[in-house]
Write a structure and sequence with these properties.
Blueprint: H1 33-47, E1 54-58, H2 66-69, E2 73-76, H3 82-92, E3 97-103, H4 104-110, H5 112-121, E4 125-131, H6 166-173, E5 177-182, H7 186-198, E6 202-208, H8 224-234, E7 235-237, E8 254-261, H9 267-274
Parallel strand pairs: 1-2, 1-3, 3-4, 4-6, 5-6, 7-8
Antiparallel strand pairs: 5-8
Helix pairs in contact: 1-7, 4-5, 5-6
The structure holds iron/sulfur cluster.
Iron/sulfur cluster (SF4) binds at residues 27-28, 31, 33, 62, 132, 136-137, 211-214.
Length: 292
């Protein structure tokens, strides 16, 4: 018998990519991570890659739980070590698409060294960093992303430090694509993710996302609506600019967009080249000589 048109849909639109048996998820009400996760799933589907050729690696933290909910090969690894695991996976199975899902503390604090070297080497992976400006899961401590003056449980009178700018860091280290969005830029974020997954090399996408529970409650963003309003009022879209021209100014303007899109040989390309014996001596003093 046909169901009436008003019957509730009992299946999630991303059912094919969800480990439904793990739901409900752990994310708090109003958290931005679920929205980002949904965009990641939509982007994977848009690429039309066979799902058994896609893998996700995560570290520890609220964002790291993505790897537990996605129904592809996935690895919820140790704190800060998602990129080394992803690097090994990519080198062992070069035909696979590898995504890293990581929070700001996981990726840029304890995992910062791995991040800069993977970008320098141009390891072929898509790194998604959900930046909620603090260590959410462990109680809202100050992180390398915490804006100057913002309050956290370990900086109750305001952070005395200037935060890292992740997009500048990724671009300076050699990432082939660098984008920044917020969790309210759903369509643009999904498009950037799709392009990043399809592009060979180290692709980086930062997503500013709400954490009302741990960060927002100390900083006048106590619920989802406060956070949506905050991002909506401040976001300014500028594409194809040097990330140095896109500083994160939380008091005034948050510049978001697709900043970098360039070509570089990947680590695997260069690895094959040096093992092909075509490079000759180093340094090559013949300025016209180039390896084929
Ligand atoms: Fe999201 Fe913050 Fe809750 Fe973690 S603590 S699930 S980042 S709202």
């Amino acid at each position: 018998m046909n169901q009436p048109a008003t019957a509730p849909c009992m299946q999630h639109p991303q059912e094919e990519l969800l480990r439904s048996e793990r739901l409900p998820h752990i994310w708090c009400s109003g958290c931005g991570i679920g929205t980002v996760f949904s965009c990641v799933l939509a982007a994977i589907r848009k690429t039309e890659y066979p799902l058994d050729n896609v893998a996700m690696v995560s570290g520890i933290g609220c964002t790291g739980r993505m790897a537990g909910y996605i129904k592809v090969d996935s690895y919820h690894t140790t704190h800060g070590r998602a990129i080394p695991f992803a690097t090994g996976l990519k080198l062992a199975r070069p035909q696979g698409k590898v995504l890293v899902a990581s929070g700001d503390g996981d990726l840029i604090a304890i995992g910062g060294n791995h991040f800069i070297h993977a970008a320098r080497r141009n390891i072929d992976m898509t790194v998604i960093c959900v930046n909620n400006l603090n260590y959410g899961m462990t109680g809202g401590q100050q992180a390398p992303s915490t804006p100057f003056g913002a309050k956290t449980t370990t900086s109750p009178t305001g952070s005395p430090e200037e935060p890292f700018d992740f997009c500048q860091l990724a671009a300076a280290c050699g990432a082939v694509s660098v984008s920044r969005w917020t969790s309210i830029h759903i369509r643009r974020l999904t498009e950037s993710l799709t392009r990043a997954i399809l592009k060979p090399g180290f692709n980086f996408i930062e997503v500013l996302a709400a954490c009302p529970t741990a960060f927002g409650r100390h900083n006048r963003m106590r619920n989802a609506l406060d956070n949506v309003k905050f991002f909506h009022e401040r976001s300014v879209i500028k594409n194809n600019i040097d990330p140095r021209e896109a500083p994160l100014d939380f008091q005034n303007a948050l510049v978001v967009g697709d900043f970098v899109d360039r070509e570089r040989p990947t680590f695997s390309d260069n690895y094959s080249l040096v093992h092909s014996n075509q490079l000759g001596e180093w340094p090559n003093l013949d300025k016209n000589a180039k390896p084929s």
